[in-house]
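Chapter summary example: a protein plus zinc ion.
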Amino acid sequence: MEAYVQEAAKQGVDIFGFSDHAPMAFDKKYRMRFEQMAEYEVSVQALQQKYQGEIEILLAYEVDYLEGFVDERVVRADVDYLIGSVHFIDKWGFDNPEFIGGYEDRDIDAIWQEYFSAIAAMAKSGHFQIVGHLDLLKVFKYLPKSDMVELAMDALNAIKESGMAIEINSAGFRKPIGEQYPTRSLLKTIHQLEIPITFSSDAHKVEQIGYKRDAVLQLARAVGFKKCAVFRQKKMELINF
Ligand SMILES: [Zn+2]
């Protein structure tokens, strides 16, 4: 974890958030166990102390929104923010290459509708501050036939209503889709709706910190964003970038 902080500081990052995958009683091998939460939180807090004045470090979790598996220990955790992400549709892990066959069985637009319904439900739950990779379902290039913005509109309205921010996540550049989440047309609508954005490299390795940082900053500015959201103790501040 310290190597992540050092790399971020080296790149001149002012504020760096840890958002490891929160525990859940499903798909356990991709996340920490409930018993590891305290160790994780203490480790981040120790780094906050050690690097005080050099780089601001935030404590967070990326939480799977999967109906029936929302856990109080996670949603009530005393952290700066929770990223709400949808990685499963009816327990189908659609972003996992192991289960790519799931796309072949059904109408692609029906899958997209179900995905964005889950995003809307996540926003309405009120547990989360940031929407993780808003259009993750595009990861393997299974794009909808209908207009993406139309499909996402109810979810975007729910997000607006909830007061959440949406991350611009550069991990998509590392995946078959080859672009950030969310796609540009969604970003334009997010800007029109005045939903705040924040930035994420979704780094799972030290080398991925700040990945495509200049590209996503430029894109955000081109779309018209001037400020980005930072959450401390689940309170939002908008700062210039
Ligand atoms: Zn994720």
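Key point: The chain is about 35% helix and 20% strand.
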